[in-house]
Fold this sequence. Notes:
This protein is of the alpha/beta class. It folds into two domains: 2-149 and 293-343, Quinone Oxidoreductase, Chain A, domain 1; 152-287, NAD(P)-binding Rossmann-like Domain (Rossmann fold). Helix content is 26%, strand content 24%. The chain is built from 13 helices and 16 strands. The protein has helices spanning 39-46, 94-97, 129-132, 142-145, 151-161, 178-187, 202-210, 223-230, 246-255, 276-279, 296-304, 323-331, 333-336; strands at 2-8, 11-16, 28-36, 56-57, 62-69, 81-84, 123-126, 133-135, 170-174, 194-199, 215-218, 236-241, 256-264, 285-287, 314-318, 340-343. Strand 9, helix 6 and strand 10 (194-199) form a beta-alpha-beta unit. Helix 5 packs across helix 6. The chain is globular and about 60 Å long.
Amino acid sequence: xxxxxxxxxxxxxxxxxxxxxxxxxxxxxxxxxxxxxxxxxxxxxxxxxxxxxxxxxxxxxxxxxxxxxxxxxxxxxxxxxxxxxxxxxxxxxxxxxxxxxxxxxxxxxxxxxxxxxxxxxxxxxxxxxxxxxxxxxxxxxxxxxxxxxxxxxxxxxxxxxxxxxxxxxxxxxxxxxxxxxxxxxxxxxxxxxxxxxxxxxxxxxxxxxxxxxxxxxxxxxxxxxxxxxxxxxxxxxxxxxxxxxxxxxxxxxxxxxxxxxxxxxxxxxxxxxxxxxxxxxxxxxxxxxxxxxxxxxxxxxxxxxxxxxxxxxxxxxxxxxxxxxxxxxxxxxxxxxxxxxxxxxxxxxxxxxxxxx
Length: 357
C-alpha cells in the first residue's frame, strides 16, 4: 500500500509502505476512505514534534471500513463503517477510567501518526479498537464525519468545556483556523451573549462570522480595546487560544476578565511569558489539554442531526494519491483560502465558505 511518510523536518513523501497487520487481539485494520490534514501534522513536518521518528506514516484522523479485527474486538466487525479517533484508549488505566483518554498510560493516547503509523495511508492499524473507533450512521457523509476525529472534539473539549462557557458570557476566540471556527460553533451551543473572533487574515475573519461570531477583530489592531468596549472595560469571560504562538497566548491573558478562564488549545513550539505579576491577583484560571475525545459520541449524534457546521469547514477535496498537493494547499492557507482539506472521497468541487485571498 501507499502512505504519507515523514522522513525528517521538511522531508516527506507519498510512497510504498508495508501493509498493516493485526499485532494484538484488540487491533482493527481499517481501509481508509477519507482522511484530513491537521495543523499538528504541519508542526511535525517543521520538526516541532521531535518524538515522531523518521519513517512514520502521518495522520490521526480518518473514516473507513473495518477489514479485519483481532480476536478480542467486540464492538465492530469487518464491513462496519467507522470513524477513527485521533486518540486511542486502552480503557484500563487510571486515566482512561476517568475518561481522560488523551493521557492514557496503557499504550494509548495520541499514538497514530505520532508513535505508530497513522491514517494518511490506504490502510491503518488501530489499537484498542473497541474504544478507538466509532460506528457511523449511514446518513453522515465522510466529509462531515472525518472532522469529528479531532477538530470538533478538540475545540469543544479543550476550548469550550475547559473554558466553562456559560449562557450570557462574552467569549473571545483567538485564531480563526479550523479549531477556532469549531470553537466558535460549539461555544454557541451554550448561548453566550457574544462570540468575538480574532485573527490576522480577513478571509478567516469572514469565515468566523459565517460560523457564528457576532464580532471580529484584526489581531494587529488592538483587539483588547474592542473587548473592553464590548464589556464595559471588564474583559472576556472566556478567552480561547487556538493558534499556538506566544503572542496569542499573551493576548488572551490581556483580554480576560478577573475571575475569567483562558483555555489554551493551540500546539506551542516556543515558550510563552506568563505575567504572574499581573495575573496573580485576578483569579484567572488557565487550562491546557490534549483532547480526550469523550465527547465524540455526542458530537456524532449532533452532526447526524445537522446541528454542527461540519461540511462548511471543507474547502478542498483530493484523492489520496494527491497527498503532497493537499499538504501544499493546506500549508499555504493564506494564499489558497483552505480551511480543511479532505482526501479520499469522490472528488468534486467544494465551494469555499469564504472568498479566497
